[in-house]
Amino acid sequence: MSATTTRTVRRRTLRLAAAALTAAAGLTLTACSGSDAAGAKPADRADTGVAADAGSSGAGGAGSSAGAQGSDAQASSGAKADAKADAKAGAATKQPGSAQGAGGGSGSGAQRCHTSGLKASFATGGDAAPDPDADGGTTTSIVLTNKGSSTCKIGGFPGVDLKSENGGERWSLARSSKKFSSITLKPGDSTDFTLNLAMTKEDKGFYQPAFAEVTPPNETTALTVEWPWGTLVDQRGATHPGTFVNPIG
């Protein structure tokens, strides 16, 4: 082979080798690009998923935040509603109300009736007078009137002490076993309680009261009223006397 032919073959071989190298490099770049593209697809799918979520909630992350804020707003609104309800309930309990039993709602905010705001008197009209001829005892009533300007609540047993004319002979009356509740008195309203009396016309073994001292429940100051009736069987030392006090109301 001639020298010219040899150089021609060598150049052709080099061109082919260079072409092969270029092709290989191209394939390598293509493979890398394909890998990147493939890697990007999941990211694209993830972006698509976020977009779908954004479509369902309004605006992606902002939608989620808005939802959370909406929940907080609802909770806050509910709390405010509860607070208003509690405030109304509290206001209702502070308003004076009509006669109630113990623990009654509308009257439960009223203060206790104090001696200074009450007036006591015996009920004397109509059938209020005790029957001195009654077999087994009779009754009389003492009326308590709210003479103050505020509503008050009262209930339970008053203390009742009978006093003789000169005050030397005192009789603290026993209490019955009756159950009681409390009631609310508006200004000018009245309630009462009864005394069971064992009256007598005998000229011995009797007790003649002149006054009755009435101490309202939970108070220490008494109201004094004049005794309008006759004599009682003197049972000051008896275990179960026939003259005793019943609860208010």
Detailed description of the structure:
It is a single chain. This protein has 249 residues and is of the alpha+beta class. It has 2 helices and 14 strands. Strands 2-3-9-14-7 form a 5-stranded mixed sheet, with no helix packed on it. Strands 6-5-11-12 form a 4-stranded antiparallel sheet, with no helix packed on it. It has a 3-stranded mixed sheet with strand order 1-4-8, with no helix packed on it.
Please indicate the percent range of residues in DSSP E strands (runs of 2 or more).
15-25%
Please give the oligomerization state of what you see. single chain
Q: Which structural class best describes the helix and strand composition?
A: alpha+beta
Name the overall outline: elongated
Mean pLDDT across all amino acids: 71
Report the C-alpha radius of gyration, rounded: 50 Å
Whole-Å distance between the termini?
144 Å
Are there runs of 5+ residues with pLDDT below 50, and where?
2-9, 21-107
In a nutshell, what does this entry contain?
It is built from 2 helices and 14 strands, in the order H-H-E-E-E-E-E-E-E-E-E-E-E-E-E-E.
Highlighted features:
249 residues; alpha+beta; five-stranded mixed sheet; four-stranded antiparallel sheet; 14 strands; 36% helix; elongated; disordered N terminus
List the helices and strands and how they pair.
Elements lengths: L2 H55 L3 H34 L16 E2 L5 E5 L15 E9 L5 E4 L3 E5 L6 E3 L1 E2 L6 E4 L4 E8 L8 E2 L3 E5 L7 E4 L5 E2 L10 E2 L4
Parallel strand pairs: 1-4, 7-14
Antiparallel strand pairs: 2-3, 3-9, 4-8, 5-6, 5-11, 9-14, 10-13, 11-12
